[in-house]
Design a protein that fits this description.
By secondary structure, this protein is mainly beta. It contains 4 helices and 15 strands. α1 crosses α3. The longest helix has 14 residues.
Length: about 280
């Protein structure tokens, strides 16, 4: 599939293929700072936030509420410098001894070379990394990064294109995210990702799109309502990819997959076959 066709399919999927209709609201309506207050700046009447990293500190923010299902997204523009060792993130996570987590992690590099790493933690266990190369420069403009989470599957989207699927395979003994999770975003550095070029600091990431289309969890407890078809993302349409989405998903995997935990060991984990 050519790049132009991929973009066409992405447009069609973004138009009709997902459930998000969250309004654009000021950042403080749904979010609060996690850390690095002096490394953040609200812009455009709180319709945008800049978070930054230098040798002193990184920064991050989180949602005021936890959620039990939904369609979650951010528009992001990544730092446009030598970002070796710099990690820019958008993710969901719970706060328990054995937490659940669903990650978008952008691994920086020289120039504008980013890898997008996704990961899944269930009951405190991760190690399910996948990495893809992006088919555009994520530093030039804002792009949409979204995921849908219901009782049937988790799907990661980039500009409406599905790039990863994690199905509910509890019936074969595979843990699935079932804990109430907050939305978080951050920028930080990791030695495993390389040594940062601090002469390039500060590294600045920009976020927009602070409406949240999710089922709030009361006192961090997910009610049965969060699985109800009252919420559009729970209806049968969103239990699996449709044929058009499946085709673009397979195209991304074939052309852009750089690392997949499913194929590095002698035996693939039991969930891998159904997730492809």
């Amino acid at each position: 599939m050519t790049s132009s066709l991929l973009f066409l399919f992405a447009f069609l999927i973004a138009t009709v293929g997902h459930a998000s209709c969250a309004p654009d609201v000021p950042w403080s309506q749904n979010y609060v700072l996690l850390y690095g207050q002096d490394h953040t700046q609200l812009l455009n009447q709180e319709k945008e936030i800049q978070i930054s990293l230098d040798q002193v500190s990184g920064s991050g923010f989180k949602s005021l509420k936890a959620y039990g299902s939904g369609f979650f997204g951010m528009r992001m523009k990544l730092p446009n410098k030598d970002t070796t060792g710099i990690i820019t993130t958008f993710y969901l996570r719970s706060y328990t001894n054995n937490h659940d987590e669903l990650d978008f992690e952008f691994l920086g590099g020289k120039g504008h070379n980013y890898l997008l790493q996704t990961n899944v933690f269930t009951n405190g266990q991760g190690g399910r990394e996948q990495r893809i190369s992006l088919w555009f420069d994520p530093t030039e403009d804002f792009h949409d990064y979204q995921l849908i989470w219901n009782q049937h599957q988790v799907v990661w989207f980039v500009d409406g294109t599905p790039i990863r699927v994690f199905k509910n395979n509890q019936n074969i003994g595979v843990s699935y995210p079932v804990q109430a999770m907050q939305i978080e975003a951050s920028i930080w550095n990791a030695t495993w990702a390389g040594e940062p070029n601090w002469s390039q600091a500060p590294f600045q990431a920009h976020y927009q799109g602070f409406g949240i289309d999710g089922c709030p969890a009361q006192l961090n407890t997910i009610s049965s309502e969060c699985s109800s078809p009252t919420f559009e993302w729970n209806v049968e349409k969103y239990w699996k990819l449709d044929p058009q989405q499946q085709m673009t998903y397979e195209d991304v995997r074939n052309k852009h997959m750089m690392y997949d935990y499913c194929i590095i060991g002698p035996k693939a984990p039991p969930e891998c076959q159904s997730n492809h």
